[in-house]
User: What shape does this take?
Amino acid sequence: MLQVRSMMESRNFLPSTVTYNNLIHGFIVAGNHAEAVETFQAMMADAASSLDRRSQCAPDLATYNILIDMYAKLSDATSAAQMLDQMTKHGIAPDVVSFNTVMDAYRRIGDTENVRFYFDAIGRQAMRPTEVSHNILISAYGFNGEPGIAQELFKQMYAKGVYPRRGLQGDFAGAMAMFERMQYSGIKPDARIYAMLMQAAVRSSVGLAKVDDVFKMAESDGHVNRDVCHWLMLAALADGTRPLAEVVQAVYVDEMQIRKIAPTVQTLDMLIDAVMRPSRLLELHDGLVHQKYRTLSKMGYAGAVGGAGSAIAAKTSSVSTNVDGGTAGKSANASALERVVRDLQTAGHRLSDRQRSRIAAAARRLSAQ
Assistant: This one.
């Protein structure tokens, strides 16, 4: 990095803000913190040399966040806080990451008072603390020997609608430990928490039985919604031990329809990808809890999807049924897919041309198997 900087100076190269940021970050990664600070000072001097240079190379939010993070990791909370003050004085509004990083700097040295001060400062800046903000605050009190306060903060975090997503979406054992901690704290899980537990189970490849166990817990608590059913469906499809028709019957019919949970494009996409891209099924639908699937427009669905529905029906009816159930099973799979499409049609939704093509392709593959 020193050679790069020397070459720039020797060739009268005028670095931009991005160039300076990359240099500073490079020095930090290399462990050369003094050079990082020196480069920042050179950046400041360069920006102050003229109005043109100020518009080209003045420090920005990223610059300050890089340096605040450096000081936090060095456990130099004072310098991290000073950098936050400096950016404000220069007219650059800090973001939640800026405050979180300063909080973490004070957490590292056990200064809970300042951790709390900067947590509250997020609200004073008309911003909302994130899950990370809450986790740093809880961790600060927990490691400082004040578990009672940490537990109360945990309850407050949940009450504000901030969920411990990171803990619940890690490995399944860790997610279950977090779940038990929530229960111990008197926090009652809801459907979103159960969906996150199921996601952790799917990601950790602990098997369909574990996912089903979580589903039964959600069912017992009365918290089965579309996301919970979708995770059960994804786990069953990825398991690969049951044909598509059985999965549709077990999850879509016996769990979703009985609760009057309507299918969405996501329901259909999972089934299609299980047929067309089974090896990528989990990768494609890994984030389904937080994915905002676009609501299907109700404009002209019948005309748009009629051809696709008819194509499935035609392919299904063209397959003969055998006593051994082999070919009949394939026909049942196509019929199961057709059922979901038909239910979307009944609901008055519209599918895109791409989705209609995918439906027809899946129907052909099911019939050809």
Remarks:
- The first helix runs from residue 2 to 10.
- Confidence is low (pLDDT under 50) at residues 289-330.
- Residues 133 and 246 are 44 Å apart (CA to CA).
